[in-house]
Amino acid sequence: xxxxxKRTAALVLTASLCLSSPAIAFAATExxxxxxxxxxxxxxxxxxxxLNFDVQCNMPESEMDEHIFNEDGDFIDGMISMMDDPxxxxxxxxxxxxxxxxxxxxxxxxxxxVKFTLHxxxxxxxxxxxxxxxxxxxxxxxxxxxxxxxxxxVKAIHDWVCKKITYTGGQDDIVSTCYGAITDGKVLCNGYxxxxxxxxxxxxxxxxxIGGTAGTERDAEGHAWNIVALGDKWYYVDATxxxxxxxxxYDYFLKGSSDFDEADxxxxxxxxxxxxxxxxxxxxxxxxxxxxxLMDSTNNTVKIGSEFPKELSVEPVNPTPGTKTNYTAADxxxxxxxxxxxxxxxxxxxxxxxxFIKDEAYDLVDTVAYAVISGKKNxxxxxxxxxxxxxxxxxxxxxxFKGKKRGSVKIQIILTLxxxxxxxxxxxxxxx
Length: 432
Fold this sequence. Notes:
By secondary structure, the chain is of the alpha+beta class. The chain has helices at about 15-20, 35-45, 60-65, 75-80, 95-100, 125-140, 150-165, 180-185, 190-200, 240, 280, 330; strands at about 10-15, 30, 50-55, 105-110, 115, 165, 185, 205-215, 220-230, 235, 255, 270, 335, 340-345, 350-355, 365-375, 380-390, 395-405, 405-415, 420-430. It is built from 12 helices and 20 strands. The chain is globular.
């Protein structure tokens, strides 16, 4: 298994941090009355590599906290990647994939003043080099002009990227760039994805850069891949994982949300939060893999980019790729205590009810709650102890209570999953 790296957003809402950075000289403050104006300002500054700037945001503080200063990178992954001008491939996705958020945070204060300090992986001359050579690669090396369909073009570009690039570790900026991919051929997943983006858009095929994590749920690392449009649907492509040392595979080529991780369900892809809200509304994914046998001349109908959302909906609408949308208790649990979900308890004695969570399902569980279905008067001092870690590093939930009166009782422990589904497990007991 390859190792993966991706930038992480560092978004801090505090005036004191702004005031403690005298070495940073910011330009004159601009204003933005909407998130669309803020995103356009951000885009224009980055395109010219004017990387230190202030914006006075005249929006409610609650909305600023929700969309800009949140740990999920909502503004970065969602809004900026949607500010897409079809006349250039240097904005939108290419901006998101090219900013090192480990080096450059965003600071803000309670009055709505936002200070940006940006650190791109790729310099402006390097981007200009990429733009000069992408048409040459498409015409002379891939020869897309001789390919009949968009599917043929996507496959040829995918294969060229897998042959041209070798995955490499490292922290130098160049290994996270398309420039590094086409000059040195040794990059991280970020370089693969940005190279796919540039070549596909250069060939006239709608493509987006996607950020997230991949790997086992507990040990997942930052990762990047793409979505590509054929017909009226979007499909996942992960060229990094299709690039094996001695061959090209198609395990992650033009897959849908239900089968993206079909080749290895133990190593799932998980979208960053910004790609599951209004971004997902604009770019709806196909449920299953693209079938070239069913292809006809209408396979190139999706336009590049989408209108900026008029209203920002932050409710996730697209399932994480490669995951199920209807889980059972057997998918989540290794077992329960008591094992048969029945118990007998004396009055004033304490009872534990526990659910043992599978390692691969741990990150699927968002919250744990309980409900006394019957016999409420027979128990007292109920306490939800949440998640605990056993000596063998396994995870479990723990609910404790005391017996109060003789009688029967039914108690449910309710797991709410990250896809908002609830899984309820019922325990039945007698108080003696």
